[in-house]
Amino acid sequence: MSAKTWNIAFFASHGGSNMQAIIDRLKLGDLPAKAALVLSNNSKSGAKQRAEAENIPFYHLSSVQYPNPDELDKAICDLLIEKQIDLIVLAGYMKKIGASTISKFGGRILNIHPALLPNFGGEGMYGMNVHNAVIEAKAKVSGPTVHVVDEYYDKGRILGQIEVPVLDEDTPDTLQARVLEKEHILYPEIVAKIVRGEIVL
Ligand code: GRF
């Protein structure tokens, strides 16, 4: 009998460059995993265009269709169950994951954060806020963290990090670019380790 294939759901709100890096890794064809769907709260996201270009089913689920957050959470959770999703990869998803989804898929939801957690994480720490804070704190190193998502912001088990130097002349923009390059290496590596059984969730 062949090994299980992991059905991966990507959640992305914006450009989706991390999602693309993982899809490109999956396309090498040596991992027991498949990009099963892309979900976004943003019907105009770059992630949608990427999903279409890659022929991956795209779903737009947001407060537009479900003003009640609990109903949105349930719709998302039902979709994930229907599509037999094994792993949820958050890649620049700007919404908090709801209680039903956490309770059904807890431990199998990943996120990437653009700083070395547990530093520079928590509510409000996203996007440029993170890089601004790192530079203001005069930190000497930063870099991405991949972690498991639980009900608290940026608190779940850390699965991997890559250190990136913070240079004296860095601006938040230059630092972001240097960290993002490493995100595109780290996230596919961690997903590969999970589906190969080298990291057990
Ligand atoms: C990345 O900086 C990631 O660390 C954060 O959101 C951003 C997503 O970028 N969680 P992209 O949409 O993958 O290009």
Structure at a glance:
This protein is an alpha/beta fold. Helices cover 36% and strands 19% of the residues.
Layout of secondary structure:
Blueprint: E1 6-11, H1 17-26, E2 33-40, H2 46-53, E3 58-60, H3 69-82, E4 87-90, H4 99-105, E5 109-113, H5 128-136, E6 141-142, E7 145-148, E8 158-161, E9 164-165, H6 172-195
Helix pairs in contact: 1-6, 3-4, 5-6
Could you describe the 3D structure shown?
This protein is 36% helix and 19% strand. By secondary structure, the protein is of the alpha/beta class. Helix 1 runs parallel beside helix 6 (172-195), helix 3 (69-82) packs parallel to helix 4 and helix 5 packs across helix 6 (172-195). The radius of gyration is 17 Å and the shape is globular. The model has no long low-confidence stretch (mean pLDDT 96). 5-O-phosphono-beta-D-ribofuranosylamine (GRF) binds at residues 12, 14-19, 91-92, 112-114, 144, 180, 183.
**Overall 3D shape:** globular
Small-molecule components bound: 5-O-phosphono-beta-D-ribofuranosylamine
Number of strands: 9
Which radius of gyration do the C-alpha atoms yield? 17 Å
Would you identify the regions where 5 or more consecutive residues have pLDDT less than 50? Answer: none
SSE run? EHEHEHEHEHEEEEH
Indicate the percent of residues in helices: 25-40%
Whole-number mean pLDDT: 96
Q: What separation lies between the terminal Cα atoms? A: 23 Å
- As a percent range, the share of strand residues is 15-25%
User: Largest sheet, order of strands side by side?
Assistant: 3-2-1-4-5-7-8
- Alpha plus pi helix count: 6
Can you summarize the main beta sheet?
Answer: 7 strands, mixed
Could you say which structural class the secondary elements and strand pairing correspond to? alpha/beta
